[in-house]
Design brief:
The structure is a single chain. With about 170 residues, the protein is mainly alpha-helical. Helices cover about 70% and strands about 5% of the residues. The chain has 7 helices and 2 strands; from the N terminus they run ααααββααα. A hairpin with a 5-residue loop joins β1 and β2.
């Protein structure tokens, strides 16, 4: 039998409990209010919204979003941020932690957000784009750092893979 692919829904909700729909609605409301507020402040402060985002920025911020989502949702160092909302299942093979959301209601919804790189990516991408409107140079530097770390991670995995192949 073929293995079912992981979907964002099954990834975020690995429990027999009913999903905390009112809490999800609350998070969606907060996200939309923050996004609308960000755009309103940008326009009211005289910033012109770009007609389009440059492809180079799309690529840079895409990699930065990927990397920051992994840092927030998996790194041991950020486990203290996730701890009130999650339970540790096991350490991952790559040093990342495997955690599951705990509690119910808003606590569970936040746990799902903080353990799902797909889910948190929307928030991160929005923050990066908002930051680009107000501080483009600083934002590109921060995104570049995250991009460099992502490239370094790829090289670390490639080196480890090559080492294991040489030993085999």
């Amino acid at each position: 039998m073929a293995e079912r692919p992981i979907s964002v829904v099954s990834y975020a909700a690995k429990s027999d409990e009913e999903p905390p729909l009112p809490a999800y609605l609350g998070l969606v409301t907060v996200y939309n209010a923050l996004f609308a507020g960000l755009l309103l402040v940008a326009v009211r402060s005289g910033r012109r919204l770009p007609e389009r985002v440059a492809l180079s920025d799309m690529l840079l911020f895409g990699v930065a979003t990927f990397q920051l989502s992994r840092i927030i949702t998996r790194d041991k160092v950020t486990s203290s941020v996730r701890a009130p909302f999650t339970e540790i299942e096991e350490p991952g093979a790559d040093g990342a932690l495997k955690e599951t959301p705990s509690g119910s209601g808003l606590r569970r919804a936040l746990g799902e957000l903080l353990t799902c790189p797909f889910c948190i990516s929307q928030w991160i991408a929005t923050a990066l784009m908002g930051s680009l409107l107000f501080a483009p140079r600083v934002t590109r530097i921060a995104a570049s750092v995250l991009g460099i770390v992502a490239l370094s991670d790829v090289l670390q995995y490639a080196r480890e893979f090559a080492r294991k192949q040489a030993e085999a």
